[in-house]
Amino acid sequence: MNTGANLRMLERADKEVMKLNRADIGAVYEFMHKFRHNPENPGLNLKSLNGDSRLMSARVNKDYRALLLHIAERDYLLVAVKHRGEVYDDLSRYAYRINRVTGGIEVVDLGPVGDSIVGRVVPPDAEPEPVQKPLFDAYSDAQLLELGVAEPLLPQIRELTTEAALLELLDRAPQLTTDVLFALFDGTPYDEVLRQVTEPVRADEPVDPEDFEAAVERPATQVTSDDEALQAIIGEAFERWQIFLHPTQRRLVEKKYNGPARVGGGPGTGKTVVALHRVAYLARQLPPGTDKPILLTTFNRNLAADLRTRLLALGGQELVARVDIVNIDRLASRVVTEVKAGGSRRVVDDNRVAELWGEFLLETGESDWDAEFLAAEWAEVILGQVLKSRSEYFKARRPHRGRSLTRMERDQIWQLTERFTTWLDGRGIWTWRQVAQTAAHLEMDRAAALNESSGGFYRPRYRHIVVDEAQDLSAAHWKMLRAMVAPGPDDMFLAGDTHQRIYGNHVTLSSLGINIRGRSSRLTLSYRTTRQILADALQMMTGEVYDDLDGGEENLAGYRSLLRGGRPVFRGAPTWAQEQDLIVELLQTWGNPTDGSVAICVPTRELATDVVRRLAAGGLPAVEIGPDGPKQTDGLHVGTMHRFKGLEYQRMIIAAVSDGLVPRQMISRYRDTDPKRYQREHQRDRSLLFVAATRARDELAVFWHGTPSPFLTSRLVQRTQ
User: Fold this and answer.
1) Global confidence as pTM
2) Minimum mean pLDDT among 303-307, 530-534, 714-718: which range?
3) Omega within 30 of 0 (cis) for the link into 663
4) Are both 707 and 579 inside the same structural domain?
5) Rounded CA gap, 30 and 226, in Å?
6) What sign results for the dihedral spanned by CA atoms 535, 541, 546, 549?
7) In the beta sheet, which residues pair with residue 701?
8) What is the mean pLDDT of residues 399-416?
């Protein structure tokens, strides 16, 4: 009696399957089901290829064949799905081996390249490229092999002289080979490639190049079962690349950490994907139960909703039922509501704080202090650091605040903030910053009380906390979270990029009891946008220095993409009205798509209203993006730069990137009076533009009227088309 067989699918094969039509995709999964039940089924026609005892083929349907690697007695790995003509016409084109660096199984197609499986690759320009010397002449075979390059591809690598040829070869190269060659091609020094690309995926133990049973179990052999693949197809909202993890990402997901850990990286590098998989990994380690011992949180409400949708697609309802998924301010509000600390007060947005301070100073006749300065001091220092008393404020450090204060001035400010808080109470309102501070107080007091009453063995709210977009949380948020989980292994996992900080929250985590030193990793490969868009987005970041959330500096060195496309468009117009005409003209060139794949991004809500009105006049449906995301999926999405956090589009237009709008004219008042604040606001506006530019997957256009933004370097402006 047949006992069935274990059949797994290599990730690269899964990508090939996803290019087939739905009928053929269904045939593949039907084949996998039959094979697992009975590999000797005559209809499958399982046989060795060219006498090779390990590489085999089997019939999927009349047109397609599955290539299988025989791992053990009844253990198989589906490594490719090819048209029957490809399989039998040239059997020598397929090479398989165990990578001596990663210990993972690699299958290389040495024949002609078909359709790209790397991603959205646009054919290169028609102009012939000049003859060049081989791209990798500076490196020996031994050096390339030490980096993990697939040995069967070395002869072809030696013949590469153009980027187009490199892209074509890497369409069929294993992942590590692709990462290594692109890093070298981009000019990354050999030692840096070894450290950044190769070492993170190196096997922990010595690799036996003949032990396929051990190799198939290593993280470097990225596999899935047919059940998981079917689930991914059903969960259409979850993109295929979000289901699978690069070996570097998988290591971060499945690693045991002795304390808080952080993963950083530029836009589109998969930080959120890693965070979601980390949640799923932690949830699968939980003992049975109905509680929610894992918290998944982020700053934006629309991002929190998106995280729930994506985690549901990844792990299903049973897994999601064990995870508390909530926006950070809603979490703070929940803590406050538990003890009715907020009373009947209404919460107002933090962007109204300066306005409210202005009203308070006008009513009270106080004229010695600037409303904006007091608003920032109150929000960032007093509330942000959860200061409970005047004496604590006297001792508090005030990083990033610029102007120093005497003890007498601090005393005056403390008294004003107490009066201001009473004034807000009288109006029946408070701010989200106040909610966060109150929640932090309550949670810290609760943890201390439980710890004391239980002799140090209290049960915190959560066993694990995972934070996405960590750069946007305030110090009060972090203090609340620190009190919600007991310090220890795998307590906190943070994903974020300070280059995308758009809410002005600057923190040093170690000062808040969250020590990530030695447990920080960085992702460098962008899966979202093309090399051309990425290069221009990085140009916009020139001249800024960003922190790493723990007192050090962070950069985007090594940040790269494997996708290729057209160069972004940069165009200016004399007036805003004429710039809007440019927007309409470009949309017409793109065929006026209204399927939700195109967005127009502007600096202010007023400009967004103008664009919506102009599009409507031309008969084009526009959908404004609100705090919870787009109100509907179709139409042309229009919104401010803040609204595009966490979104992505096939084509993007960033409009009104003009001097005085990007960065905002109002911040110039701080240039001399408060240089540190000026630098911080300047950096924040640059981050907004960077976030907007990196929402584009395939095409990007940047427009302005009058004088272009100083963030658009002369190199970009000179490319005006």
Assistant:
1) 0.71
2) 714-718
3) yes
4) yes
5) 9
6) negative
7) 569, 653
8) 84
